[in-house]
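ESCALATION

Customer reports they have been waiting on this structure for their group meeting. Please prioritize. Original submission:
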Amino acid sequence: MPPKAGQLTPEDSAAVATDAAAKLGAEAQRAFADAIKRVEQAVQEGLAQLRAQSRVYTEAAGEGLDEAARYATEQVRAKPLASLGAALGIGVLIGLLLGSGRR
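Update from on-call: job pushed to the front of the queue and completed.
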């Protein structure tokens, strides 16, 4: 029986459905690609911020270590015998701690 005017044949319906599915698939791929780009950009911005913050912390830690080294050097020059005694005592303690594990 031939289709009436204005009615779709099964082949036409299948073609319309296939066309709609292809358009939806293409739209989904574009949306997915855009989402990937946004995530990648957010990660790169986060890494840049992390690098900047770590640089600040590294500089602060370096300055602290420099200050500690200067202080230690001043104390050793001001009181060399006390410094020698402290170093000897620390060495003996470390030796005792390491040696006690071998018994």
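Sent to customer with the following note: The chain has one domain: 11-100.
Escalation resolved.
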